[in-house]
Amino acid sequence: MDSQNNANKSSSTKVLLIIGIIVILALVGVIIFLLLPKEKEPEQRRSVVVNEENVEEIIEEMEKQAQEPAQDVGYYAVTQNSEWHFKDGTSESSNAYIKNLEENSADVYFDLFIAGDEENPIYQSPVIPRGGYLENFKLDKDLDPGTYDCVMIYHLVDENQNTLSTLRVTATVIVEG
After folding, report:
1. Domain assignment of residue 10, given as a range
2. pTM, whole model, 2 decimals?
3. Shortest CA distance to 130 belongs to which of 109, 153, 152, 160?
């Protein structure tokens, strides 16, 4: 009987030893995983939507930024009016104005969309250089008379016209008919 008890003790000791080794290896693996440096994804900056409720605040912020030295790449300020009038769907605007401030770090262009349909632009601007402006342009799409809530997506671009950053702004297009 003693030899059978010794065999059982020896067998259970081996099982416990194997389980202990497995637990230790698992712990070492977890510790190594936790200590390895992790790549952090860069935090994605979001564009700011400008609307009637916050336009004054945004304008004040833009004016304050205009007093500061040139901005870092990826940030920019623009001066524009937010309600554009067109005699009809094919005429130039009588009051549209967009300026890329000289203090900005790069050129910009924008695409204009009817709110809710950002796949079909109604106007695609040329590149506006730093300090340049665009005014009284014609829409690329003939619109029926009416008032259209729109979204402008500004693109800050490098010298190869690669987009560095974007900004979303609301505007209203009024086609008088």
Report:
1. 1-38
2. 0.58
3. 109
